[in-house]
Amino acid sequence: MTGVAFDLPGSWVWDFWFADDGERYHLFFLYASRALHDPDARHYRASVGHAVSDDLRTWTQVPDALVRSDAVAFDDLATWTGSTVRADDGTWFLFYTGSTLAAEGKNIQTIGYATSADLVTWTKQPGPVLRAQGPWYETIDSGAWHDEAFRDPWVFRDPDGDGWHMLVTARAPEGPELGRGVIGHAWSADLRTWELRPPLTAPSANGFGQLEVTQVEVVDGRPVLLFSCLAEHSTPARAEARGGTWAVPAAGLLGPFDIDGAYPLTDERLYVGRLLRRRDDGQWLLFAFRNADEAGEFVGGVTEPVPVFWDGGRLVAGEAAAADA
Predict the structure, then answer these.
(1) Neighbours of 218 (CB within 10 A)
(2) DSSP H stretches of helix in the chain
(3) What pLDDT sits at residue 134?
(4) Max CA-CA distance within the chain?
(5) How far apart are alpha carbons 114 and 95 in whole angstroms?
(6) Where are the alpha helices (DSSP H) in 130-205?
(7) What mean pLDDT comes out for the span 219-234?
(8) 11 - beta bridge partners?
(9) pLDDT digit string, tens, across residues 80-96
(10) Which of 54, 185, 291, 316 is the most exposed place for a label (fewest CB within 10 A)?
(11) Among candidate residues 250, 286, 283, the one with its CA nearest the CA of residue 266
(12) Peptide bond into 135 cis (omega under 30)
């Protein structure tokens, strides 16, 4: 298994994302205390931590970015995965998932954001700014899934300069239960007010129950979409591959995305693959968190970076790929 670049001895570390201020790299990550004993309990105790690095290998922990709000609030259970971008006026925006429980004990996920002048001190803004709504997105009332999936906002500038786009882990209200995962979509002119739009993908009998922690980038001139999904949340056609992070052919940053053409970029030992372009040489790198050891037990911790390259029409990761490029 790939070596670890960042971990905490007293906590589990899992989902993460980056920001680059031009001088230092910033790592935002979910973590929860190992005093919970059960790693599955970490999800409902998650806070957003923060670390910085000059070289993407040695990280220094700094003050946490976000913690859950006092009840009653859309994020009074936990603060989950998001993304960080910088507005034209220099303000940093951290978009994140707020988690709360419905009366029947099911998890409801919505999108909020915080702002900062320095990437260190964050102020939550009133929220949520986006939630799952019909007719495009499945809500908890359907009873078809274990939660109301509307999370993991990935925000990026419109490639033609028309505002900002957000990709969201969401589900369609119709289709095969394990194939309803779709890429939700929203648009904003100013990062503060968001317009919910139809999903960018459709349910599929060869698809996934959830497309977690999406990211879209243009890697060496070719658009590619990344998402994560384990076998237990995939259609039978996908489960046998035992993929962790998946890559998807894309025509552009807004698709079309060929979800039926998705292929594993990592196996289930590594999850939430993230791409980051190294500042000094432009090399694209893949990070992930260590999901499971050989016994299937949860591990945690963010991996060391490995280079990614195109092999024909597929994105591949690892030093071997670098040697063959």
Answers:
(1) 14
(2) 236-239, 319-324
(3) 95
(4) 55
(5) 7
(6) none
(7) 97
(8) 8, 33
(9) 999 999 999 999 999 99
(10) 54
(11) 286
(12) yes
> Position 122: which residue type?
W
Tokens read off for 65: 């970015």
N residues, the chain: 325
Contact predicate 146/206, CB 8 Å = no
Boundaries of domain holding 245: 4-324
Which amino acid, one-letter code, is at 248? V
Helix (H) or strand (E) holding 165: strand 164-171
Considering its fold, how many domains does the chain have in total? 1
CATH number for the domain harbouring residue 97: 2.115.10.20
Q: How many CA atoms lie less than 13 Å away from 318 in the CB half-sphere?
A: 11
In tens, the pLDDT along 137-156 reads 999 999 999 999 999 999 99
Average pLDDT on 18-33 reads 98
Taking the CA of residue 165 as centre, how many other CA atoms within 13 Å lie in the half-sphere pointing to its CB? 23
- Does residue 275 contact residue 308 with C-beta atoms inside 8 Å? yes
Q: Which residue has the tokens 């979800």?
A: 259
Q: Which residue has the tokens 């004993």?
A: 37
Structure tokens at 187: 């648009």
